[in-house]
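Give me the 3D structure for Glycoside hydrolase family 3 protein.
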Amino acid sequence: MGSHGAAPLDPMWDDTDRLLGQLLMMGFEGTTVTPQIRKLIREDHLGSILLTAKNLKSAEQTTQLVLELQKCAYDAGHPVPLAIGLDQENGGVNSLFDEIYIRQYPSAMGVAATGSRELAFEVAKATAEEISACGINLMMGPCLDVLTNARNQPLGVRTTGDDPQEVSSYGVAFMRGYKEAGLASMGKHFPSYGSLEFLGSALDVPTITESLESLSLNALVPFRNAIKEGLDAMMVGGCAMSSAGLNVMHACLSEQVVNDLLRNDLKFDGVVISDCLEMEALSHNIGVGGGTVMAINAGCDVVLLCRSFVHQQEAIQGLKLGIENAMISTERLRSSLRRVLDMKARSTSWEKALAPPGIGLLSQLQPSHTTLSTRAYNSSITVVRDKNRLLPLSNIMEPEDELLLLTPLVKPLVASAAARQLSEHATSDSPEPALWERSASVMSGERVFRELGRSLARQRSGRVLHTSYTANGVRPQHENLIGRASAIIIVTADANRNLYQHGFTKHVSMICNMQYKSGAEKREKPVIVVAVSSPYDFVMDHTIGTYVCTYDFTETALTSLVKVLYGECTAAGALPGTLSQSQKLSQSKQHWLVEAFNEERDSNALDVLIKSSVDDNTPGLHSELASATSNSFLLRNPEVLEAHFVVRNSTTQALYGFCTTYFFKATGTGVIGAVFVDSGRRKLSIGHSLHNRAIRTMLQRDGVKRFQLGSRLPSIYLGIPTGHGGERKRLRSWFANLGWNTALSRSVCSMVARNLSTWTPPPGMAKSLQSAGADFDLVYGWDHAGPVLDHIKTNNRQGLAEVYKMALSDPSACGIIRAKRPEDGSLVGTVVLYNMQSQLADFVPGMKDIGELAGGISSPVISPAVGEYSTLLQGLILLGMRQIKQQGCNACILDYIDGDGNFDGLSAMGFSVLHTFEEVSCDAATWTMVPPS
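Predicted structure for Glycoside hydrolase family 3 protein (933 residues):
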């Protein structure tokens, strides 16, 4: 296909307007040919049309509409037919819906759950035959996205899963099916929507934060394979890209993405179609006219504009202006034209376009396609877990028992992706469904769930009680029904994005755990949770003992569900991707070899990794690692068992990731003190592998009572770093997915006071100290250890005793300031004072990072019985600052302070926050391992 440059074009294409028309794809409002679309075809020579649910009412009307569009082009003298495209992804995303003639098939993920590539091919072929019968010649599919960020993922079940090889093999099977039926195929959404991060407002574009290297290993695999197998077209997304060496506002406008990555690296020579340039973020940031020129210059062959006639005119004007101003060369346009003509030659002709077979052919296909649809759905329903053997329901229910069905209030099933993208913004504030949602004959979720209730009731003599639930949670009427029913089915639809569903399900399941069947032996009330869209809702939550996934909630899917619940057919589906046979979630199939850190072998490589991690930090953000070296992590303390781990390249000796663990014998606390990964290799499960090894090691320590994320010693990461906006959210969810309860975190921070040479204590503070009723003194050396170490036992925080012991053994560089009761000399408060020569300073890299002579104050402990907590704390710190100033230092670090505390007193003394963290602790006995990935 690579010989476009050679073939001479027919002289009729010398007409620039005619040539430009072939490089545009447009949509329109309405179910008949409108004056606007007629003008675009006749006068602007528009060559491609996207139809969405808002244009289509039935198979018959679709055939009629498509034929009229083609006739309009034929009468206007178009040399080749229109390319007419449609999103018909199945599951919930179908633009053409017709209860009689168009069959419903499972979503892409539902098909993958059947485990059969052969079935995928058959379903794709059948889908394509149906829309082809109506005159459609371009399938806007398959979806080739790999779900690397599965939980907060708008794509959901539209893609086959999170394993690149599996997504690839199903994508190629779908593509072959479309081709077999004579349609052109289009891969989407290059370079992958599977790892989008939503970083800001509606106007901000979702962003791919993966590096090209990591995309190559993962997300680009399905695209690369589909190209090798002869994919006709590729849609490039309108998302942004941001990683080392790549900063792109909109992928489809970027030469780096289209020309360099897609054309040169992946050798794609088919038709490149841009994402819709009417997306608000895109039109708002750049403008449609300019955007169209940028898209063509980036290497797009066809520019998509979904529906606004004003924008469509603007795009045409933009292109003409681009040619007049010599911003676009005619040769560039002609090479795009050749590609478009090539695609059309393979998928359509005037003979075909002007005689669509329509209803006649659809009635012939109907019997075999109906059988295929039922077979596909029956093979896709997945019972992920059924711990107490609640299925089939006849196992646990008497004929007269009542069954309760609880379903969420959900928006109508989304029809086409393009239509949804445009309507989301338009309708987010109005309760009224968008026009296309009303006109498309798409079942609303409510109707489908009502029908589910009826079909559950048809099969049994006892009553089926059915009610819906909303963000208002468990109401009294729910509680009454739960009390009456003998078993409960809760339906969820994308609970990860509709958190109220998650909360409601957990609440009901808790009530049922406490309710027992009266009169009989004690047992929990049976609960079955059915996820009718994304399987990720409760896949990891083993407290939900019976969990079933259907991958979409069309009527056909729920008919198969009822058969499974009543035992009329056995659920044969398996979770796709890495959720697969083990039915456990792990993010990617790469198992990295984790090795113990070897100081001699790895120290230099660790210094390189630290430096690159600091260099890759976002400009303006401060890295906690800035002055750390490999030595900063090695305590070499007999009271602390340390074990550190690396993932490395044994050939080049380079480290890809590093993780530290410390076990403080005194408190039985196992601590992860740091985990970081080379920025070019994030999202490849390296961190996951290191973390699992760390936890496994700590679980084996004798006397381990608790785990903690964040280490007081060494004082580099006191917990999850939280000062970095979106990064905080990402890190928190990463650790939460590994099993840490980040909701129960404790805020800690390090602080700094500068310019000590001109500093004076706030007025009145010295006076209030006298009223604190304590005597203060400063002591050095081990002779004072007894009372000090006894005093700090009141505080069981890890690392505290070790800090004090280190200070007491280093009298030349450390001291202890004490607060004592005048009446009996007992200690009520202590704090450690140290300078840059002390051993302690080696573990507080922030000391060197200040860039001037600094002293440190560390680990204040105030007796719990003391009323004057804050006055005493200020007193100890104030005396410490005076000492540090006397030693000629110009800065003072407070290296471990309660972040929820009252900062007013400390900021009045001249301190400001340096870094903030969230320290997370949990009970070691209740830890459950997330399977290694």
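Confidence is low (pLDDT under 50) at residues 412-443, 517-521, 581-590. Let me know if you want a second pass.
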